[in-house]
Amino acid sequence: MPMIFGLILVHVISIFFSLQKVSFAVDSISPFFNISDGKTLVSKEGIFELGFFSPGTPTNRYVGIWYKKIPVRKVVWVANRCSPINDFSGVLTINSTGNLVLLNQNKSVVVWSTNSSKKVKKRPIVELLDSGNLVLRDEEDRNLESNYLWQSFDYPADTFLPGMKFGWDIRKGLNRKFSAWKTWDDPCPGDLSYGSAVKLDIYPEAYVWKGTEIYYRSGPWNGIGISGLPLLKPNQLFDTHFVYNGYELYCMYNLKINSVSTRIVMNQTNSAFQLLIWMEGGRSWKLYGSAPQDDCDIYGRCGANGNCVISENAVCQCLNGFKPKSQQRWDLRDWSEGCVRKSPLNCQDGERDEEKHKDEDGFVRLVGIKMPDTRNTWFNDGINLKECRAKCLSNCSCSAYSNRDIKGYGKGCRIWFGGLMDMREISDSEQPLYVRIPASELGIARAARKLRAIIVVSVVGSLSGMLLVGYYIFRKTLKGRNRKTTRKNKAKEEDFELPLFSQDTISIATNNFSVNIKLGEGGFGPVYRGMLEDGQEIAVKRLSLSSRQGINELKNEVILIAKLQHRNLVKLLGCCIDKEEKLLVYEYMPNKSLDCFIFDKERSKLLQWPKRFEIICGIARGLQYLHQDSRLRIVHRDLKASNILLDKEMNPKISDFGMARTFGEDETEGKTNRVVGTYGYMAPEYAFSGLFSTNSDIFSFGTIMLEIVSGKRSIGFHHENNEGFTLIGRAWALLKEGRPLELIDAQLRESYDNLQEVLRCIHVGLLCVQQRPKDRPSMSSVVLMLGSETELAQPKPPGYFIERNSQEDCSSSKDESLSKNTMTRTTIMGR
Description:
Elements: H1 2-23, E1 28-29, E2 35-36, E3 41-42, E4 48-53, E5 62-67, E6 75-78, E7 91-94, E8 100-103, E9 110-113, E10 124-128, E11 134-138, E12 150-151, E13 159-160, E14 166-169, E15 174-176, E16 178-183, E17 186-195, E18 207-210, E19 213-217, E20 238-244, E21 248-255, E22 262-266, E23 273-279, E24 284-291, E25 306-308, E26 316-318, E27 322-324, E28 339-341, E29 362-366, E30 377-380, H2 385-393, E31 398-402, E32 413-417, E33 423-424, E34 433-437, H3 439-463, H4 465-489, H5 493-496, H6 503-509, E35 518-522, E36 525-531, E37 537-542, H7 551-562, E38 572-578, E39 581-587, H8 595-598, H9 609-629, E40 633-635, E41 644-646, E42 652-654, E43 661-663, E44 670-671, E45 674-677, H10 684-689, E46 691-692, H11 694-710, H12 727-736, H13 755-768, H14 779-786, E47 826-829
Parallel strand pairs: 25-33
Antiparallel strand pairs: 1-10, 2-7, 3-4, 4-5, 5-6, 7-8, 8-9, 10-11, 11-12, 13-22, 14-15, 14-21, 16-17, 17-18, 18-19, 20-21, 22-23, 23-24, 25-26, 27-28, 29-34, 30-32, 31-32, 31-34, 35-36, 36-37, 37-39, 38-39, 40-43, 41-42, 44-46, 45-47
Helix pairs in contact: 9-11, 9-14, 11-13
């Protein structure tokens, strides 16, 4: 009996372990298990499945990955693409070196292997992810891409899946490219492939190759999408990303809706590649887009300097200033020869002829086109469009230039040399290309554009003549009523001591106030980024019709700031006042405003203590200039973090002087019944009594100092033990208790070498926010205290020590923490 019982026990144990083998880790395998023909590996959520399959001849077996829940099997990856197993004996397992290998029945022949050179620390595991990525990783490593020993996404077949990288990785020696199946039943790569043939030291883009010849070109990345491939532009379905960091260059797309299944597949027989979406309702794959789309997408269809326009009978056309190289009739020309210049460029030894400025080369601006092939280009992210133009003119081989990145108003520079190859018309492309032509042709091009404009205007005029006559009569009646208002709003340059820009100039500079280049919006209206014709970048504050700032406030800001010249004050370049349109034109601040950094968890890491201290000192010097050193004594009245702008070197500049007031030599204080500003920065005597002076600005400066040190907003400050304290109250309480270090931003605790400097700033900040105005130091004293080690007086209790319900006394507008030359204000009626 004991023997029989023992045999039964052994049998039960063996059944238990066999069941464990079947159910073990359906999404992964370890060295103790394998996948034989007939068994599959399924991802955790059941989205993808790996196993053996036959696309054609039943005895040709391949290991592949396909969608599990979609009834029509579509294979997205194949391991042994050109090495099928001719029977059902294949086994997928992990060998002694930790690599995934495909073996035949007798396990003597390795049909396919991952060939990873990385050493395994503990135990290798193969896992199929829900993204469709088959990964080989070490058991003790976290499931991160950087820790993978090998992954199928690095060796794509014919399918581009969401999350998959397409491009180069120099460190790993990878060139991730896609290739179509040779035929429908043979997954071995055909002669159609999609990859990058460009080195990393010039601007990259992707190509479809047919054998050794280029068949299609995607166009370069422009900061938003792939310029010549509309189907991969960001949309409601997915986002496209591009990474270029010197050692890695790749493009990828990610789904916004996880429940949707999409794939981009290379196709040997139809279009080069297709974007397909699975439609659950129709139980089929729907074509979302494909490329090439038409004859104009075929590479080099119209040769060098030719533009392909699919809507024209003669699809090939030469660019302005060029003529066909072939002299035959247009319908018989060999357009592979392209176009050549009608006249040579005025260029000698790469230098511009400054003495013959009128005869120098110029540029024709083209929009709505696919950017030319970038294989013979140079690019620089650190220069603007104006500098890019000059760079092109200084080189006789330069034929065109453009922005590298079109986000906002555009940045960076890309220059083409030699012939401009593979251009076509794309209706929704907004990126301009500036093509170089000699002065003699430049005049002809401008005349042609003018003639076309005249024709259009004439046609429109003839059709709408009667309407214009009726409008004229109505306008004439109304004109008399508005004549006085027009005179009142008419701006003269001598009134402001600054240039006046025309409304047309500003409209062109801001792309007609496009929302794509909007920097932000405050209480007085939106702010736009722009670029003047000479390439200078600007920020335009456009006062909205509903704004409470009127013509008087705008004139006040213009007149005041026009007379101020200091490195820590934002520079006003000009303005535009045309009837109801009121615009201020400032220098552009690329790093936006101070609040975008100190109150942002990630950006605040970029402002370590040395730079924060420089910003504090810069603001102090700017205020000292306003209060004491300028021709006028000026009180800003709305000093806050969002009104401190940062230039490209992170130097602070005080902005927004719409509410500023001036004092005479004998004046020290003013009073108003209309209090404007931002709650949390206003001095108590100003908020509740309408009294303002340089001391009220000093209070605001002290608040900003405490914000910079703590990384916390003065408005809506919260602390687990603050017992209703404001930021100012919290700082004062910690100083009195001998614990001021607790106020310091956690991001700064490893960046300050001089602790006394940080503590001194807290101390000076509390001196600036004392309750009584006469107790606060002057700005010249503040500058002296920040730059020396003199002994400091003990601060008295500050204003706004305890948090109050601001709704009892005022209505507060929320601070806009965007980069803008605009003003958020709170109106508080004096009590």
